[in-house]
Task: inverse folding
């Protein structure tokens, strides 16, 4: 079984390989606003694209200026050099212009069998939520048609429940970092979040359950300084590890590969309503 350490260290984990060998499909996405619940409910393997391990970015630099975000260029490099050829589809969203440029160059140079642009509103109003709900319905229809699957309300509610369980456990890890003696380093926390991008929701939930029990029994660290790491998308474990080797501990973050991806959302009162409306909100 794939462990957290193995999933964080490799782009193509043992679980991904086993899923593909069994005839399963893997769909890649990059922005945390892409609802993984829909892919999970479809029986597809949600895989969040990351840039770690790309090394050189020469292929990407030829298509996106070096003034562009290094994370986006690293992801594009891995798409263009064939590293991500195991993906059976891509889901683009309008998280930022550079991310869009990454996807559009990738799709132009190395087309994916399935490519969907999910438009996410950047303001929260009644009208924008109605619009996003419609976008999610179009997304569901596109997945059902291409992959010949049925995405039922029951499956969506089950996927929503699983993600709720994952978020609850991640929040317990957040709490374990907040005491006078943090029980989890920032490097470990980022490793968990990065691993979750390449694990199936079911397996990630299982591993989180094991980790929470272990972490809550630890005596805790004695940091020389407690840091908040702010930023957008970074999946570089060595970046955080280098800071912590100097005696600091990252006890909180605002990262896309971090707390932004799982911060609390309103839990549904019951599972009798429309799951897509809940996801849109």
Result:
């Amino acid at each position: 079984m794939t462990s957290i350490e193995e999933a964080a260290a490799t782009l193509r984990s043992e679980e991904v390989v086993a899923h593909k060998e069994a005839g399963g499909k893997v769909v890649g996405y990059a922005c945390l606003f892409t609802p993984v619940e829909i892919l999970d409910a479809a029986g597809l393997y949600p895989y969040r694209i990351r840039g770690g391990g790309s090394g050189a970015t020469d292929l990407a630099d030829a298509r996106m200026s070096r003034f562009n975000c290094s994370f986006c260029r690293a992801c594009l490099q891995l798409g263009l050099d064939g590293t991500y050829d195991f993906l059976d589809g891509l889901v683009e969203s309008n998280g930022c212009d550079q991310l869009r440029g990454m996807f559009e160059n990738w799709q132009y140079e190395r087309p994916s069998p399935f490519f969907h642009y999910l438009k996410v509103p950047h303001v929260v109003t009644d009208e924008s939520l109605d619009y996003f709900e419609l976008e999610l319905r179009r997304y569901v229809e596109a997945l059902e048609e291409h992959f010949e699957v049925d995405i039922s309300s029951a499956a969506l509610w089950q996927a929503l429940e699983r993600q709720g369980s994952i978020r609850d456990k991640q929040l317990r890890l957040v709490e374990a970092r907040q005491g006078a003696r943090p029980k989890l380093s920032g490097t470990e926390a980022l490793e968990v979040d990065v691993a979750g991008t390449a694990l199936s929701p079911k397996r990630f939930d299982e591993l989180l359950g094991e980790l929470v029990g272990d972490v809550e029994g630890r005596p805790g660290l004695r940091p020389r300084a407690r840091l908040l790491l702010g930023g957008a998308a970074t999946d570089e474990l060595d970046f955080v590890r280098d800071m912590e080797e100097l005696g600091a501990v990252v006890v909180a973050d605002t990262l896309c590969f971090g707390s932004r991806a799982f911060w609390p959302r309103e839990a549904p009162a019951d599972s009798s309503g429309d799951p897509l409306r809940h996801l849109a909100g």
Remarks:
- The mean pLDDT is 92.
- Residues 169 and 210 are 10 Å apart (CA to CA).
- The radius of gyration is 19 Å.
